[in-house]
Design goal:
This protein is an alpha/beta fold. It contains 14 helices and 22 strands. The strands form six sheets. Strands 14-15-16-13-12-18-19 form a seven-stranded mixed sheet, with helices on both faces. It has a six-stranded mixed sheet with strand order 9-8-7-10-11-21, with helices on both faces. Helix 2 runs antiparallel to helix 5, helix 4 packs parallel to helix 5 and helix 7 crosses helix 8. The protein starts with 19 loop residues before the first strand and ends with a strand. The structure holds succinic acid (SIN). The site of succinic acid has 10 residues, from loops.
């Protein structure tokens, strides 16, 4: 499957770090156990990192707590300036950061460069928010008293991020946290820690003070590190992106110390094509939405509902597009789609396809494991709601087409899931656009578009897809408390 691809050399090899980052020190902290990070396209080892555990997490939390004493007292302008420097450093090193990202995650180099731009945008956005954490003045009902509210940083934040966006899921949280005046301990995805460490190196270079950002790489002690972050009373907030099951566990662990939590969890997005839609727009959008990151994003369409009168046209045009895909190593210029992250990812995709086919779905293209961590980009037709793909996200390159007849029927099918992250639909009827957008049970809705994420807009879900909003004017509030001050004796 993978031709002999040469891994590009980093212009600045010192961005490739093989230690943890605690209190501005690159350290192994005497940890002798190391874990391997694997290139998912070749299954070859990229390198090894110290496998940190509870003790090292405690030390990182202490460093973050010490740093909070001074970082929380800096002005919004000082934090703005540093975040902006970090933003520029990311763009100045975009190619190296993208190389590290493609190597450990597998997405194409073009996509990885796009992720670095996206990731950096959160530092620019939150730099600008750092100076706008306004309070309020509340008109007093008592003559001798005045009421105001101010916003204050919550404290040390535990940040737990996934492998599917090794840079952007970190910056979306860290940008907001640092802008608010919080300090952070990050546990990056075990599969993709090198991107996180490269970001930390840039943080150090631009002058983010010691202890403000700390990174704990871990593989075999993921559960211990997560538990320490959630139960340690010094940590005041947990921000997690990942599966709903893990989110529930972290939330229950965090309840003992009543931490604030942000949970960006799994989705099961519906993508609805009504017969009054512009079909070319809808086909282009499903290609972007479904196959972004080889189908491994929480907001990827999982269930594609197409109205019966346009079903065949949509399916034929989609298959034509998918025929032009080329799977391969992310560094190969011809590759349009990279591998899945690991064999577990492949197994899940395989089992979803097999389940659908055993219940009567038709494979229009693809459908097979393509060796290693690769799976053929697939289009399935005649899907039904008793199939596994209706129930949970596939997290892989499978476009599953469900026929439907009426608006009422499809809204009910789309909402028939415990998840509510994103949904999409295509229609040119303005009345329907409002009606359906309001009825879909999700934190985000794309109308006539399949790509909705940006630093400017709120990202987050409802139902079992989570709590809180990231990015946008709302993102910083998740890292702040509102304090009410009542001043009497006036
Ligand atoms: C995710 O998959 O969790 C994030 C996707 C995005 O930011 O668009």
């Amino acid at each position: 499957m993978v031709s002999n691809v040469t891994i590009p050399k980093l212009r600045d090899p010192t961005l490739f770090k093989e230690s943890a980052f605690i209190n501005n020190e690159w350290t192994d902290k005497g940890v002798t156990e190391r874990f391997s990070v694997i290139d998912p396209a070749t299954d070859k080892e990229i390198g090894q990192l110290p496998d940190m555990g509870t003790q090292e997490t405690k030390e990182a939390i202490q460093a973050a707590s010490d740093a909070f004493k001074t970082w929380s007292k800096t002005s919004g302008k000082e934090r703005h300036d540093l975040l902006l420097k970090w933003y520029r450093a990311m763009l100045d090193n975009q190619e190296d950061l993208a190389t590290i990202l493609t190597w450990e995650n597998g997405k194409t180099y073009t996509e990885a460069k796009g992720e670095i731009t996206y990731a950096a945008s959160f530092y620019e956005w939150f730099a600008e928010e750092a100076v706008r954490t306004y309070g309020t003045v509340i008109p007093s009902h008592l003559p001798g008293q005045r009421f105001v509210t101010i916003k204050q940083p919550v404290g040390v934040v535990g940040i737990i991020t996934p492998w599917n966006f090794p840079a952007a899921m970190i910056t979306r949280k860290v940008g907001a946290a640092l802008a608010a005046g919080c300090t952070v301990v990050i546990k990056p995805g075990a599969e993709t820690p090198y991107s996180a460490l490269a970001l930390a190196e840039l943080a150090k270079r631009v002058g983010i003070p010691a202890g403000v950002v700390n990174i704990i790489p871990t593989h075999n002690h993921v559960a211990d590190v997560g538990k320490e972050l959630c139960t340690n009373p010094i940590v005041k907030k947990i921000s997690f992106t990942g599966s709903t099951n893990v989110g529930k566990l972290l939330m229950s662990q965090s309840s003992g110390t009543m931490k604030k939590v942000s949970m960006e969890l799994g989705g099961n997005a519906a993508f609805i094509v009504f017969d009054d839609a512009n079909i070319s727009t809808a086909v282009d959008a499903i290609v972007a939405c479904k196959f972004r990151g080889t189908g491994q994003t929480c907001v990827c369409a999982n269930r594609i509902f197409v109205q019966k009168s346009v079903y065949k046209e949509f399916a034929d045009r989609l298959v034509e597009k998918v025929k032009s895909f080329k799977i391969g190593h992310g560094f190969d210029e011809d590759t349009t789609h990279g591998p899945l992250i690991n064999s577990k990812g492949v197994d899940k995709v395989k089992s979803h396809v097999e389940d659908a086919v055993s219940k009567g779905a038709e494979v229009l293209i693809g459908g097979k494991h393509a060796g290693g961590n690769f799976f053929e980009p697939t289009v399935l037709s005649n899907m039904r709601s008793d199939m596994q793909i209706q129930i949970e996200e596939t997290f892989g390159p499978v476009a599953a087409l469900f026929p439907f007849e009426t608006e009422e029927e499809v809204v009910s099918l789309a909402n028939d899931t415990p998840f509510g992250l994103a949904n999409y639909f295509f229609s040119r009827d303005v009345g329907r656009c409002w009606r359906v957008a309001e009825q879909l049970e999700s934190g985000m809705v794309g109308v006539n578009t399949g790509i909705i994420s940006s630093c400017y807009t709120p990202f987050g879900g409802v139902k079992e897809s989570g709590l809180g909003r990231e990015g946008s004017q709302f993102g910083i509030d998740d890292y702040m408390h509102i304090k009410y001050i009542n001043m009497a004796g006036i």
